[in-house]
Write a structure and sequence with these properties.
Residues 1-36 are annotated as: Disordered. Keywords: Coiled coil. With 205 residues, this protein is mainly alpha-helical. Helices cover 54% and strands 6% of the residues. It has helices at residues 71-96, 119-124, 126-204; strands spanning 50-51, 54-55, 101-104, 114-117. The chain has a two-stranded antiparallel ribbon. Strands 3-4 form a two-stranded antiparallel sheet. It is elongated. Mean pLDDT is 81; it is low at 1-19.
Length: 205
């Protein structure tokens, strides 16, 4: 037995229509959705996107988050998001047959960089893909080495500053102790002179 439109369970929302309201029930106000476009980029435009030599305007669909301070959390987030991007890259490549190459590396990474090449670009430009991959490998290694050197240099300067401050504290402490000894010697000398004067007065009588 087939059911008509009015007989189907939940027929009120099959096509996205709101269910019929009972008499006396309060009406809910629909929240207006903001349509994000290039001219109404509520969260700004993606920075660094290019089409050839020209900037490509891509509005952000959501607010851009700030950097993750914790190194471990940042690395885990990087791996998860980049794997999602690589899966999306494969989907785009499979559906459109495009040439696509993607690569990424984390600044604290100890493992080789991540990269994806579409089937078509691997087939039709294998030699060039290998060259690009090697170039990116050298680039990331250079950036990581420079960052490590910078970190080591900053660490060395920090240690030097701490040692300098410690030496200054020692010098200050030594100066205070020297002043204390001089003051004690001075008071001792004054006391000795006073005792001598008292003995001299007694001998005169």
């Amino acid at each position: 037995m087939t059911m008509g439109n009015d007989e189907r369970p939940g027929s009120g929302d099959v096509f996205g229509d709101a269910p019929s309201e009972e008499p006396g029930s309060p009406k809910k106000k629909k929240k207006d959705r903001v349509r994000i476009t290039n001219t109404n980029a509520l969260h700004g435009l993606v920075e660094g996107a290019r089409r050839g030599g020209q900037a490509l305007e891509i509005p952000r669909m959501q607010k851009l988050r700030g950097p993750i301070e914790n190194r471990g959390d940042s690395t885990r987030r990087f791996l998860r998001l980049v794997k999602d991007i690589m899966e999306r890259c494969e989907q785009v490549s499979q559906e459109t047959g495009c040439w696509l190459f993607f690569t990424a590396q984390h600044m604290f990474a100890k493992e080789p960089f991540l990269h994806y090449a579409s089937p078509r670009i691997r087939k039709e430009g294998r030699k060039e893909v290998e060259e690009i991959t090697n170039n990116f490998n050298r680039l990331f290694l250079t950036l990581i080495a420079a960052r490590n050197h910078e970190s080591k240099e900053m660490h060395r300067k920090l240690l030097a500053a701490e040692e300098k401050e410690a030496d200054a504290q020692k010098e200050l402490q030594a100066a205070r102790e020297g002043e204390q000894r001089e003051a004690e010697a001075c008071w001792h000398e004054l006391g000795r002179c006073a005792a001598c004067d008292a003995m001299y007065v007694q001998t005169q009588h």
